[in-house]
């Protein structure tokens, strides 16, 4: 991965990712001290977020110019709607929230701005830019999951353990690795100008990730 495009993206966003890992919301999941009220707000917002996140991948299906790439994007739409959302649905059930109730929640401004930035990039550009915008989300959650799972007892926590196990799972890591490889293959032969744009997208999405943790921590609407 050294010297790869994905490595360059990761390095450009490194200080922001550090801040995400140290964020009180994230460390609160890790040590189990996060107030459930904050987590519930986050869960509702994140569930809404995932529908738009799946739409970004769906635009990848529209923009792809090869059947293989169409299938890759399509499989990711399915992995989000059917796989990752299982974590959310399990928490919704535990918190007593129905899918209908979620759809009556207004997206927080930090959430709406983030998803609409990704959707705007996806509408205007092509597969490489779509993957750059999605990779910041997927990869940062994979790193957060791995980091929290290393804290003794964290993955067994009666409430937050399930979230940690979901994002620390081999399934999630494998999907993320495939996205990293896809980024590198789509960016192969890109000009310096194109690479600079992919980096901007990745860094902006990382800033939005940090904003999402702030929104959740402060219960911003
Ligand atoms: C805000 C946010 N970013 C990334 C992910 C991982 O898909 C998520 N579930 N939520």
UniProtKB/TrEMBL annotation:
Domain of life: Bacteria
EC number: 3.5.99.2
Top EC category: hydrolase
Reaction catalysed by this enzyme: 4-amino-5-aminomethyl-2-methylpyrimidine + H2O = 4-amino-5-hydroxymethyl-2-methylpyrimidine + NH4(+); thiamine + H2O = 5-(2-hydroxyethyl)-4-methylthiazole + 4-amino-5-hydroxymethyl-2-methylpyrimidine + H(+)
Record flagged with keyword Manganese: no
Family affiliation: Belongs to the TenA family.
PANTHER family per UniProt: BIFUNCTIONAL TH2 PROTEIN, SI:CH1073-67J19.1-RELATED
Annotated protein name in UniProt: Aminopyrimidine aminohydrolase
Organism: Vescimonas fastidiosa
